[in-house]
Amino acid sequence: MGELNPSKSPLDKGDLKKMKNKKMKQNKGQIAIIVLLASAIVLTLGLSASKKAVTDTKVDTDEQLLKEAFNAAESGINNYINDGSFSYEAGNGAKANVNSTVIGGGTSIASEGPVLKNNNQLFWLVNHESNGDIGSNYYGSTPLILTVNDTFNGSLKIDYFYKNGAVYGVTHLGYNFSLPGAVDGYTYSSTKKVSIPTTGDSLLLVVTPLVSNTNISLSGASNFPDQGEELTAVGTAGDGVKTQIRTRNIYQIPSFFMEAITAGNIIE
Question: Which helix (H) or strand (E) segment is 49 a member of?
Answer without folding.
Answer: helix 13-83
